[in-house]
Design a protein that fits this description.
- It is a single chain.
- This protein is mostly helical.
- It has one domain.
- The protein is built from ten helices and no strands.
- Helix 3 runs parallel beside helix 9 and helix 6 packs antiparallel against helix 7.
- The radius of gyration is 16 Å and the shape is globular.
Amino acid sequence: MIILLLAIAMLVGGLIGTVGVGGILLIPALSSLGGLSTHAAMATSLFSFIFTGILGTWLYCKHGSICWGITIPVCIGGLIGGYPGALANSLAPAWILNLILGCIIIFAGIYALFPAKGGSITYKPGDYRQRIQLLLIGAIVGCGSGLTGVGGPVLSVPFMVILGFPPLVSIATSQVIQITAATSGSISNFTNGFVDLHMALMVTVAELIGVMAGVRLAHSISSGVLKKIVSIVCILVGGFIFVRALVQA
């Protein structure tokens, strides 16, 4: 069981490093293979994303793929939204919201298959409308991350790709927002005693191995192929979230 759990954690790390999306797969693995409750599985997986985010950020920085002008506003929004999201998670079942979340991610994945209207968006220094847009993305992502334990990239990557940001920039940004959203949510989860540190240590090591392989893959394929991979993974992960929520209802 533990070997299978670690293999899934490594796959999750690979997906996080390549497309930023895939953390949701760790939650049912921790629940079914690790024996954790739903809340503990969500909290433990979210805590592990702090460290995958740190490694992913460092590796994407080495490749020069992170645009900090885009990333910082998203992270600030994520930091603001993460704590109230995790607090809401501790007070009420989240299966209804997971249904909605699954639908949003499926839609985002399908929509992202098509070319962005107006072409690719770039960072515009001094554009306050863009900064507000990025702050709102971060706040929504942080709240959703804390509420469901899925990790910020599940929402930030499809949203940013839909808006027209380059896939690699969106994925690089998602590595950083993992740190802020997961840290903010984990503060609340530690307060409620949901994080299993022993299990978190094991899965985090496996995830980090996967992240290193995933980042290398992300920088070795074309932008068009990467966008298609993001879209397909979003559709599959969104469908997984939706079905899992129906089962939990």
